[in-house]
Amino acid sequence: MAKSINLQPFREFLQSESLGGVILIVCVVISLIIANTSLGPGFEKLLSVNLGFDTDSIHLRYPILLWINDGLMAIFFLLVGLEIKRELVEGELSSFKKAALPIFAALGGVIAPATIYFVLNQNTETAAGWGIPMATDIAFALAVITMLGKWVPASLKIFLAALAIVDDLMAILVIAVFYSSDLHYMYLLYAGGIFALLLLLNKFGVKSLFAYLIPGAFIWYFIHHSGVHATIAGVLTAFAIPTNETADESPLEKLEHFLVNPVNFVIMPLFALANTNIHFVPEMLDGLTTSLGLGIILGLVIGKPLGISILSWVTVKMGISVRPAGAGWAHIVGIGMLGGIGFTMSVFVALLSFPGSELILSEAKFSILTGSVLSGILGYFILSQLGRKK
């Protein structure tokens, strides 16, 4: 008898993500207003205030901006990791047939934008930003598809969520491998030892969340000091937390339900407020037509839907995967457009790509904003027109 999948946690995740997307949009607007008024310098000064403490052996004193980008975002990636693991165990990624389409679609949505950016920016000072147009912003993408309501098949919403989750996993791997520098292997060894301990706790059936979260904080500390971006600690901790395939709430699901609202309504809005404060200058409009701006915009608006659609079509034609129920190829193109909403994830990679280069970073943020808005509008238009015809 086929195993029944409990979709209630997914529905809750979808609903709160969409509302979180609306709040993100408001925070983006507020941040842009602040950056372009007399409040801008004071806000930047606030973000540079140091918090924490330092001793001879413990170093935990950093600017507020770093605490947001490295500390709070680790909690965001903890939630993403929990969602990825749950989908692997009991959801849209739990069998090869189910997992193949979003996995290959996400792979196409990573390769095509990065290739477009690389071709336009090779041998330039902005070449390091090839990872910027690769990422999909789960909150914004789900907010847009949820606004479409019954105009799109329910299977497409699940497909987009699974695709965005796999996309985030790939983005995390890219960050860990390509956007980390000055590696200190002893710290990595410490973090690896604690992670192995967490896996043992899981194997022996320990269900207390504190038994995983407290060591997880130490993993964050050691990874942060190792040179690898600290957000990877959230994913490692998530993968060690136990879950199950039954209707009983597992420790993983309990933590996921606890984190959804703080992440969507506090952490992500704070990230948007802190990192979207783009001070507009005339040169930024010119930046849209530079290799940097074109690489980001074309990567998001064209590369994402192109890569997602092509690899989806190839895997379905080869019999490796199946198309979502009730969805046509035009729907897949529309989903690919929504995948081009990079925003917060793309800004995150931009921060790692161009540290200390304010003008380049501002041009990158403006290009991300432009490409993400265009992708969202085009995706909404395509899917809404298909829904009306049906």
Keywords for this structure?
390 residues; mainly alpha; Na+/H+ antiporter like fold; two-stranded antiparallel ribbon; 3% strand
Word description of this protein:
This protein has one domain: Na+/H+ antiporter like fold. Helices cover 72% and strands 3% of the residues. It has helices at residues 8-35, 40-47, 64-90, 96-121, 138-147, 154-178, 185-203, 210-226, 232-240, 251-275, 282-287, 291-317, 329-339, 343-353, 358-389, and strands spanning 50-54, 59-63.
CATH architecture: Up-down Bundle
- CATH level 1 name: Mainly Alpha
Count of discrete alpha- or pi-helical segments spanning 4 or more residues? 15
Unreliable stretches covering 5 or more consecutive residues = none
**C-alpha geometry:** globular
Number of domains: 1
Q: What profile does the largest beta sheet have?
A: 2 strands, antiparallel
Can you say what the CATH homologous superfamily is? Na+/H+ antiporter like domain
Q: Output the CATH topology.
A: Na+/H+ antiporter like fold
What is the total tally of β strands? 2
